[in-house]
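Each lists sequence, tokenised fold; shown next:
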Amino acid sequence: MRVTCAVVFTVLSCVVADPAIAQAQSRPVSNRPGRFLSLPNAQKCANRPKQFFFRGHNYFFSGHVPELAGRKVDWLDARNICREYCMDLVSMETQEENNMIFRLIQQNDVPYIWTSGRLCDFKGCENRPDLEPKNIFGWFWSANREKIQPTNRAPAGFSFNPWSQTGHKKQRQPDNAEFDINGTSESCLSILNNVYNDGIAWHDVACYHEKPFVCEDSDELLNYVASTNRGIRL
């Protein structure tokens, strides 16, 4: 399945307009108006950080970029910072790419990062039998709109299931644990570093939490900037 662009754009207003968030008692509430995906900045795209390279894509970790070091942002702000550089949050479609990001986290003792993973729990995702139950079949990579394989087994090509076997509720991820605490859905995919004595693993996390992030080249945005800026070197 491919999630359409229209659906992906719906994610953006959903992040701040969910009525459950407005009713939360134990978490900060954003007073910012509806937020949207940022457009790429041609100059930033041409000079984007290229810290490491894998299968045709450049990547960078925000903690290693001077102007971003020490900065933590929510999931949508992380996407938008990446997008200004013709990139998006990292998507781990293969075990090799996943292990590369795990090594980055381990070698630099990074506590957690955002990825582009998102739960399809917003307008446009309702009445979809192929997405039920949502915690198993409802996840996708927002950067490229590719569906994430079912969460209850190892993805194709993986020798293990990258979702953690535990969390706040002492059960396999994703567990939507924060919904039981303050009514906020855990709709974004983060990699946590041994937070639950579980090693480095995937976790569902509420999207308002602030974290560093890894950006990955977006073919879509690079092609757009190249086609609208003659002669630009990307």
Summary: The two ends are 30 Å apart (CA to CA). Residues 1-31 have pLDDT under 50 and may be disordered. The chain has one domain: 5-13+44-228.
